[in-house]
Structure formats: structure tokens, C-alpha cells
Fold these 3 entries.
Entry 1:
Amino acid sequence: MITKLTLEYDGTDFIGWARQPGLRTVQEVLEGALRTVLGEHSATGEPLALTVAGRTDRGVHAWGQVAGYAHEAVDPRRLNGLLPDDIAILSAEPAPDGWDARRSAISRTYCYRVLTRPARSPFEHRYALWWPRPLDCDALEECASVLIGTHDFTAFTPTETEHVRFERDILAAEWRAGSSAQDVLELWIEADTFMRHMVRILVGTMLEVASHQRTPAEFANLLTGRPRAQAGPTALPHGLALAAVAYPAEA
């Protein structure tokens, strides 16, 4: 018996998803609420624990994170009554046989938000990177268009890494006008999987292109497995959100 949870959280005050001793993480808070309702052990007799579709870093948000655990489904209202205000369960449902939150996922979609105006915003400072300087939006779109397809993203993940495969299949990538706020640009990007800091380094590098510090051709060259040092800075985490996780359609 596996339950699929869909949840959202404001990552500002979390040290990321993954449990870390003595630190406030999404996993630690959510597992604590589940154990209060269901007890310490899963349906298999092992300690009750969550698997997750994508581990988010410190300060990164989620609008459609997916996690799973081996026990019966719990009414989301019951769990939300035990959870703090910066995390909420959207749904809890029985999962198909053999389903796994991470391994069964076929794609993840992230959104990175950039506030592009001279004045900072008291409403966006937790959810969008403030960029008060001019940006070339055509250059941003050119960068996004070359991402689609399979590329080597070695330049877009830290040099010290556990990854052994650096190719990723980008299914969609585009910059859009923000739907909820004026002067906000959003990078929407969907891939089979992502590496640590990958979206944030892509954004940091694209912003350099859009500021005419490097060319779109130089950006495209980075997709051939160039060293991390040749790409741009890692954009701050608060502009990033895990927007959605896709799974095969059930028969």
C-alpha cells in the first residue's frame, strides 16, 4: 500500500527537503505529522519515511511536489491541521502498484521568477529574484530555445557532485510574462530529471547573456559539456519553485 501526496511549500524557512539532524526540513516536518496520525512504522513494518520526486535545496519553493509513503492515505485536512503555515497537502491518494515518487516520474517542471523593474517589491522579495537592470528579452528567448533536446549540462552543476550522468533531456523551455505580477519574467523548464543547482545556474548564465556580458552562441557552447567555471553564477534560490511532476497515465 503506497500513498501519493501532492504538496506545496514556501521554502524560505526550510533547509531544503532532505532530513538533516537538528535542522528544519520539509521531510522532517511532514514525516512528523504523518507519524502523529499513522504511528512510527509503515505498512511494511519499517520506520515511516517519505520518498520524493525531487529534492529541493534551501530556500527553494514547491507548488506541485510529489512524495510517497507506505501506509494508508490520510485526509489532507487532518494532516494540514498538524502542519505549519508554510506547508500544505493538496491531495493524498492510493498509488498504483509499483509506483515510486522518484523512479516513476517521467518529467519535472520548474519555474524561476525574475522581477525586472528598478524598484524592489515587498510582495515578491521571497519569491522572485530582483533584477533592476535592463534585460534583452530576445536574448533570453534565444537561450531558452537552444535548451530543448538532449545536452551535456556539466557546466550547470557544481564541480563537486555525486552525478555520474550529465546529459539531460529538456522537453520544454521558455520565458513567459508572469501571470500573477507585472514586471515578472518566468523561465518554465521541463526535463526528464535535473541536476543540483542546474536551473539556477542556467538562469544566472542566461541573465548574463541578456545583460550582454556574453553571447547566445557562447551560451549554446556551454551545452557541450564545458567545465562549470565557464558558466555564469548560481542564481539565488528564492526565485525557484518545483511547479509540477508528471507520471505515466494510468490505464
Entry 2:
Amino acid sequence: MILTRWRYFLLLVGVVVMSGWVAAAQPPGGGFDFPDEEEEAPSWSDDIRAQALDIGLVVAFNALAFTSFFKKSVTLKLVTLIASVIYIGFWKSTLLSIVNVFGLFGGNLPIFRYSLAWYLLAAITIVSTILWGRVYCGRICAFGALTQLMDAVLPKKLRVDVPPAIERRAIWIKYGFLVALVGYYVVTKDLARPVQYAEPFWMFSLFGTTPMWIGLGILLTATVFVRNLYCRFLCPVGAALGILSNLTVFQIKRWSECKTCKICEKTCEWGAIRGPKIIKTECVRCDDCERLYLDQQKCPHWIILRRKSAKVFTSA
């Protein structure tokens, strides 16, 4: 176990070092290229050719992410998290932000023809949330990926398990942030100030004021003790996707034995399982419970089926 954590630690250090190098190698501005409207617009074919690499990389990354999701592979998920930190985080520095939620109210979204890769990522996020839930939060968001890699490295003895009674109340904080930030934007039309201090995503562009870096340091230090702290309790984008996830079509299957079994509830690191019920707004489709469902040596459903089959065979 110790050797495994050291391997994860060395891997995480390598990811951060490589990502910093990638960010430093980026041209000023980083992110997906959103030209100004005033520029002379080339033809659609020219625009598509100019953005072909970005579009291809978004498709390739999401193909990896959803392959890991459907296969329930721990290894592929780890590769996806690393790719998210490097590509979505440091290389593009373009995560879905509360700014994009503001855009739904004020029409302040990127120009479509110049931002095809970004719209593709946004469309995949919305459609996948409706179909399967918060897959974006679980393996595509770069900050969420970073904190999950931290969680894989850090010793379990450092973690503090939030009491369920407190956790059930704390998850509402992010919804309060979402309402407050959207309300602030509707009144002021100010995009800059609330985002600087409400989201830590700017860290991937290596840009921030001294108070912002201090705040980030405090947040990451707190994350050492409370796993996925920001994603679970503070992220306004996660809150918005949580609201959308109420429409989820393909939900996680539950066995009748789930009414009394607590194995998955104790395993869930997101506080998304309460007895027989999965809280769709909090579930990020991390695969932990679904892998347990498929484990015929641990899941009571399969154990009970084997015992019933053995009794039938014996009586026959």
C-alpha cells in the first residue's frame, strides 16, 4: 500500500511539473482561441481548418474519458484524470466556468464559429449530464481531476470524514454560491470580480493576485484533510450541473439488497448514497459503487443468488 501511494505521489509530481512546462510553453493568453468580432471573418471552411486540431483533441480526450467511464477501468480513469490536468487544465486553461452560466442570462458566450472546440466540450458536458449525470465533474474537469489525484496520493490517516449530518447541510453551500453569483451578475454585469474569488480554475493559467494565491493555498491545504472539498461543497458549476442531473436518463442500477446493505454508502467518497437512494445531484459517476455491484465476491446481491442456487441444487 505504501509503495502504491509513493508511485501515485511520484506520478502526481510528474504531472504537475509537466503541466507547468506545458503552460509556460503556451503563447500568451492560452486557452481556446476566441478572436474578436471586429476581425475580418474568414470562410467557414477556413475556420474549421484553423480549429481542426483543437476539435480533434477535444474529441480524443472525451473518447478517452467516456471509454474509461463505460469500461469502469481504474487504470483508464487515472489516465483520464492526468490527461485532464495537462490538457484541459494547463494546456487550454479553459474549464466550464460560472462565467458560462452568466452567459446564459446575458448572452455573453463565445462567438460560435470561432469557438467550435469549446462549444463541442460544452455540448458533450450538457448531453452527458442529462444522459448519465455529472460525468464532467467526475473525470473531465481539470480541478476535480487534480483533487482526485491528490486524494490517491495522500495517506488516508490524514483525512477527516465529515459527519453525515453536517455533510447533508454543507452540500447546499454551492447552491447558495450559484444563486449569489448569478444574482450579482444580473445586477452588475460584472464578470471579473466574482469569478476571481469563487473559482480556483485561474490557477491553470498561472495567473493570480497574491490574495488569490493565498486563498488557493488554503483551499488545497483544506483538501488534504477533506477530500474533494471544493467540488463537493463550494463549486457553483457543480451546483448548476447538479440541478441539470435531475434529468438523468441512465441512472445507476440498484439491487433490492441495497435497502439494507451499507457497503456502497460507506465506500462513496462524494456522500452521494443514502441508504437505498443515490442522490443524483451529488453523484459524479466515479464508478466506485458500480464496480462493487459487479464484484460477485463482495456484493451481497451476488452472494445471496449463489446461496439460493446452492440450496436449489442441494434439494434437487
Entry 3:
Amino acid sequence: MTLPSELDALAADRESAVVLTCPWHERATESLAERLGVPVYTPLPDTAEYLMQTYGLTAEQAGDGSPDLIWLLKEGKGDARPYAAGDRLPVGVEAFPGQKPNDVVLWIESHGAVIAGDTLVDFGDGLQINPRWLSPAVTRERVAEGLRPLLERPVEHVLATHGGPFGRDAFERALS
């Protein structure tokens, strides 16, 4: 994946970081973090225990857990800064619980923006909490309840990994 050269100029003029909503969305993070010399804030990947309990995998199938971010977390090829829902990051980002423990929804107050990862998506029916990706132990209402405090914020933009961008009205509908 080729990243826009404009990122270099933007990063040079301010304190920069990569902030992931979930570890499996790492895409070009390794090359970007290396190129810009920035830290990577990320929820931790799934442990083997979580994979076995949630998806019924055997210990052999689960191995050492999810292979996401091995370069960062196990090989030490970057500045890893793990975080979880409830954390406020020093880069002006607040993390809210999403549809999985390590799929969070981010609030960036300075831009009035919600960054939704995989918790809120649009696959042609408008912004919604995707029921296909919820585990049996997690209900749509539970996810919506964790995100409703964001409705008290001046949300202007919702950026979903799948679909969008959206405005506040679509966000309110998705949580109703």
C-alpha cells in the first residue's frame, strides 16, 4: 500500500502518532510508523484464551493468539503504546467500548469526530451496529449503550472503516 506523500509534511508540522481502532486494521501501519518515526497506539490483539472462549478454537488452533501486530508487539519494531476502552490518549483521543474488547470507537474532540472501526459500519443499509459481527455474548443494545455517552458530545462527523462518512443524524439513528 502506497501512502500519500502529504502525510510526511503534515507529520513534520505537529506531534503525530498512529492510532488504531483495532489491531487487525494495521494495514500499512508498520511502514508508516517507520517512515514517520511515530508511536502506535493500539488495542492489544486477541489472546489465545480469548480465541478459544469466544470462537471455540482448540489450543492448537489458537496458538499464541492473534498474529496482528507481531512486528510491533513481539519483534519490537516500533514504539507500541497499548490502550483500551476508557483510556484518554495524550494525542487528544478518547476510547469508548466497541463490539469487541479490542475494537474501540474513538472520539476526537478537536474535530468533533467519531472514528468507528468495525463497531459501526455501512454495507448499504446506512450506519449501523453490524449484527453479523457481534459475538453471542454481546448484544446490539450493549454496544449502543456503551456509545450513547458520545451523544452528549458535539459529534459532527462519523468515520467508519466500512462506509461513510456520516453526520450526527446517522450516528443517532445507529444508536437508537
